[in-house]
Amino acid sequence: MKRKIAILGSTGSIGVQALEVIRNLPDLLEVEVLTAFNNADSLIQQALEFQPNAVVIVNELWYPKVKEALQNEDIKVFAGESSLIDIVEMDSIDMVLAAIVGVAGLKPVYHAIEYHKPVALANKETLVVAGELMMQKAGENQVPLLPVDSEHSAIFQSLAGEFENKIEKLIITASGGPFRGKTAAELREVTLQQALKHPNWSMGHKITIDSATLMNKGLEVIEAQWLFGVPLEDIEVVVHPQSIIHSLVRFTDGSLKAQLGLPDMKLPIQYALTYPKRVATDFPRFSFAQYPALTFEAPDLQLFPCLQIAKEAAQRGGNIPAAMNAANEVAVAMFLQGKIKFTNIPDLVAKTIAHTPFSIPKTIEGYIETDLNSRIYTNHNSSF
Ligand code: NAD
Ligand code: MG
């Protein structure tokens, strides 16, 4: 039996790599649904190749174009945000790959969990914003959430066979990004082009900027807290510039287990899609000769305040991580548009959090309300 996959966000960096994985495993995996926000051309081309049951183009402007291009195919075409949510209900879907960027993934992922669909989760913002509700619903419905993020996949792989054993610490590795070792003065002058050049990974723009500010690591600490049920004080971040050790678990006997490999997202994507099986690949193999030294250092929290901001937001809990995430999404978008400086990103996020009234939302809509308020505040307070 082939596993039928719905890829939410199929035109992005994770989505495209997931399709590469599926293309190489035609006997095991099949594309059931593809979705995209704006990129109609790429969605059409993917649909023609993979012949899914249905596609969703979220921006309705492009509906006529997609509909026309696929009129001779046996492929249903839907448009709009509500279709993106409803589509996960389809009986034929065996697994949902959440590869949308940002809080836009929240409702579809929650809906997938409500409909008992196993989720391969790349969209970390979903757990940052509403991790408690997500995990609660996943537990109630016994829906597995399989991590795609490389660090969380590494932890998940290290935990195989250890689920009964207590975790003493999770150690999340970070490359340190393109600006590791810079001075504060240098950091104030960095350009967008420099920020978009990640040393080890090629990814979507938003996560690439998050990696440069270290907000990505902050989001990952929160993601790990929820995925593995480990308290924040037992989650440590270590900078490991070579990105070969993807993360580690320390058990109560002091033993450390880790997962290693070349930095390539196809591996964690495939592990989630074929879980619990490991399937042979021809991906390039790690060579000891090419990596004579693996090095480690502490993250510089003064230079990269976002990591500390995220940990503090997680400690406060409630709606604060949601406010932080929204402010960060807006600030990163502004930086990408050349409207603010790189070092304004943490300032803007901190300012928004300071202005957010604390609450403990009981519903997804409650978290989304904080998200919207936070976006308005960030947008109106972005002059420096
Ligand atoms: P991306 O920007 O390359 O792709 C995003 C996808 O989401 C696209 O298909 C786009 O059409 C869709 N999308 C964007 N906005 C949307 C909206 N408002 N509504 C519906 N769909 C929308 O992003 P990416 O780099 O592939 O990252 C996706 C997620 O995976 C992020 O949460 C990121 O943090 C996480 N992640 C990515 C990587 C990586 O290597 N790229 C690694 C680990 C985790
Ligand atoms: Mg990661």
Description:
Helix content is 44%, strand content 15%. It has 384 residues and is an alpha/beta fold. It folds into 3 domains: 3-147, Rossmann fold; 152-263 and 287-311, no CATH class; 317-384, RNA polymerase sigma factor, region 2, helix turn helix motif (Rna Polymerase Sigma Factor, Chain: A, Orthogonal Bundle), CATH 1.10.1740. The strands form 2 sheets. It has a 7-stranded parallel β-sheet with strand order 4-3-2-1-5-6-7, sandwiched between helices. Strands 9-8-10-11 form a 4-stranded mixed β-sheet, with helices on one face. α2 packs parallel to α3 (63-69), α11 runs parallel beside α13 (305-316) and α14 runs antiparallel to α15 (344-354). The longest helix has 17 residues, at 320-336. The N and C termini lie far apart (57 Å). The model has no long low-confidence stretch (mean pLDDT 98).
Question: What structural keywords apply?
Answer:
Rossmann fold; binds magnesium ion; binds nicotinamide-adenine-dinucleotide; Rna Polymerase Sigma Factor, Chain: A; seven-stranded parallel sheet; 384 residues; alpha/beta
